[in-house]
Amino acid sequence: MDGLAEREVLLWSATQSRLLTAGGAAYLSPSESRPNPCELPHFYLLQCDPCQITSVPLTPSLPPKLIGAWQRILFSSPNTPPSLTSTPSDTHSYNLQSSRFFIDMRFPRTASLPLFPLSPNQSPRSLPTKALRLLSRQHCFAGITRLDHTLDPSSLSFPFSTSSSPSNRGRCTRIHCVDWNFHRSVPRTTFNTWHFEVSQDGSTFDETSMYSVRCVQGQNEVPAYLERWHRYAGDENGERTLVLRMVGDRKVVRDGDGHD
C-alpha cells in the first residue's frame, strides 16, 4: 500500500471516530447510566474466550422490521461540519442483523485501496505491520444484539422521526465477540448502545446514540450521532438468514429454514 492509501484510511478512520463521539464531546447523562460491565462491547474479548458470549442471557427477539441486511446511507453528528457527514460515497457498509446475532462491516471507499488486501490463501500473519495497521483501522465487528425490554419505547424521541408508532422504537446493546478495532491495552470503555426507530414500511431505520451532546445552537441535549440505514434489495425482509455454529470440531451453516 502506498502513502496515499495510508493517509486516506487514517483520515477516514479519524472522521468516523469524530462522528461517533461528536468530536469527543459525547457524554453519558445520569438517566442513561449503565452499571453492568458485562454489557461493554469488549468484555468477553478481554476474558480471552469470546465464545462465552453465547452465555449472555436471552432477551426478547428484535422487532422483525429490524432484521435483515442494511446499508448505511447517512452518518452525521451535531456540532460537526456538514462536509464530514459520511455517506455511501465514502464508505462501504454491510450491517447484517438476525433476531439475536449481528455482523457489521464498514470499509473506506477509496480508489487507491483494495477492499481486502489479502489473496484467498494468504494469512493476515504474513502482512507487514503497516498493512495490519490499516486493516485494524477499518471496522468489522460481530456478536450479539440485546433488546432492552425494560424501556418504554414511547419515552424515546428522534430528531428526524420517520414513524409515529412506539412499537417501531426501542434500545439495543451490542456485545462483540469479533472486533478488528479491539486492543487488549485499550479496550472500548463506552457502551455500544443505541436507540432505533424503524419506518412504517420497514425499508429504513434511524439509529441514534444513547450518549448526548449539547448543540452549539442552544442548550438542548441531542444524540451524539445519527445513522440512517436502508434495507438492501433482495434481503427478503430478513426472512432468510444464515447462522454459523460449531458442532464438535465441525462447522455447520444452517439457513433460516433449519436446513444444514
What pattern of helices and strands is seen along the backbone?
HHEEEHEEEEEEEEE
Beta strands, count: 12
Number of helices: 3
| Morphology | globular
Strand order of the largest sheet: 1-2-3-4-5-6-7-10
Rounded to an integer in angstroms, the radius of gyration calculated over CA atoms is 19 Å
- What is the residue-mean pLDDT, rounded to a whole number? 80
First and last CA, distance: 40 Å
Class of secondary structure makeup: mainly beta
Share of residues in strands: 25-35%
Determine the fraction of residues in helical runs and give it as a percent range.
10-25%
The poorly predicted ranges are 246-260
The largest pleated sheet is described as: 8 strands, antiparallel, barrel
Give your account of this protein's structure:
By secondary structure, the chain is mostly beta strands. It is 12% helix and 31% strand. It has 3 helices and 12 strands, in the order H-H-E-E-E-H-E-E-E-E-E-E-E-E-E. The chain has helices at 3-21, 43-46, 129-136; strands spanning 68-76, 91-97, 101-108, 139-147, 169-179, 193-198, 204-209, 212-214, 221-223, 226-231, 242-247, 250-255. The strands form 3 sheets. It has an 8-stranded antiparallel barrel. A two-stranded antiparallel ribbon has the order 8-9. The chain has a two-stranded antiparallel sheet with strand order 11-12. The N and C termini lie far apart (40 Å).
